[in-house]
Records
---
Amino acid sequence: MDFNTYLLIWVCIFGLCMGSFYNVVILRSLSGESIVFPPSKCPKCNHKLYPWHNIPVLSYIFLRGRCYFCKEKISIQYPIIELLTMFMFGYSFFVFGSSYKTCFVIFWLSCLLIMTMTDIKEKLVDCNIAIILAISGIIYSWLSLGLSGVLYSVLGLIAGAVIMELFARLGFLIAGNRAMGEADTYVAGALGAIFGVKSIVFVLCLSLFASMLFILPIFLYNKYKENDKLTCISFILFTLSLVTFYTLFQNVWMLVCVGISGLFLIYGTMRGIRTAKRKNYLPYVPALAIAAVYYIFLLH
Ligand SMILES: [Zn+2]
């Protein structure tokens, strides 16, 4: 086995262990507990766990996804985060090799993963993580480009934060409240510090596309739960008539169907935005994270 493969295996094992740690960070950054103390315990029965209950992925398999003491189901989130972190570490090493860049990329991905998970689960993001992310971005630019790198990085930080803040405040015009949370401004600023002023606008545009991936499913699911039949039916009719128009009948009646169902859909959407409460905020950190990952691995 050559040295790099050997190293890759150790990076993956290290990733698994760090994933296990991130699970704790995600859980405790939501509850405000200390990360180091107390030792891990079952959230249901509060029983202290044995060391062999904390082996990444393997413990979950041996315990068949249940607590050893009270048999309460353990969330599938734990092994998924562990495997995802392992993949993140391994892939970063595979792409960037043994360089300081790999360390930075691994650190950035870790911060983004933790913030994404807390944003999805509780719509809460620890802004301190975003601040650390921004500082690491400035240090990275300094190491790779010198003082001009620091300038690009700081300008990027300002640009990212200002653009995202303006974007969030557009919500006041449409719905009377912020379109996104304050944490998104911090994260966008941090990404600006990492990618620099020349790239941050592009990364933010990418995040807009990424957010479309979950806006529509979440929106429809909420409408379905709120029992808003009109919006759901108009969406289905709109999609059906649009597809029919493009594939089967390109006549004026089909176009009328597209128009009417489209109007109802716009009406439902506008009403949905207006009546939405703070809880209905769309988590935007996942979109920023997807854009950052795409940029780091495919364009950098
Ligand atoms: Zn238990």
---
Amino acid sequence: MSAAGRGFVPYISSWSSEGVLASELGVLPGGRLAYRDETPCDRDSDGILWRRVSSRPGQGTPELGRVHSGRQRRAMLRLLCQVCGGPADRSGDGVLWLLKDDRDDWPGWPEGMAATHPPVCMPCAHVSARMCPHLRGGHIAVRVRDARRCGVYGSLYLPGRPAQEVITTPDDPRARWLVAAQMVRVLHGCSAVDLAPLRSPRSA
Ligand SMILES: [Zn+2]
């Protein structure tokens, strides 16, 4: 179904029919979280354990603020548009990202930023800039030449400590105690760009 037919529902958003699947966690000898009934699909190529979620896009009501782990991971892995799930826009200057304007965070922002939001295609960048609540305070379009995978965002269950949400790299010793929920890429080679006017026969 098209995004237009359902209103504005990004590809990576969860629907009310989707949730975390009940799974029992245990600890392997030597200290490492694992599912009791784990299969090879539960870990990525870095050996990171991933959250199990159901997938029923389009069923129920959209929950725009809740990211779907499976679709976020797929979009980040393949550099798909976070809004429509098609290929993200790419030019000689890199892949297009639309970011909340946090340029006061550090000099040279967003260079080195750890991104959990996947990139976008050009038509969806225009729609998002107008309609995304978290971009209303200001946004910036950026071409990114080097957006390498750097780790995951997820829930850390260190023994004897309260669970907390963190970003870790695969070589972080804490990664053994993590259940990942989102893939993270770090943005390098960033250049701010103006969103190109859309060429649409309907608006000509
Ligand atoms: Zn798109």
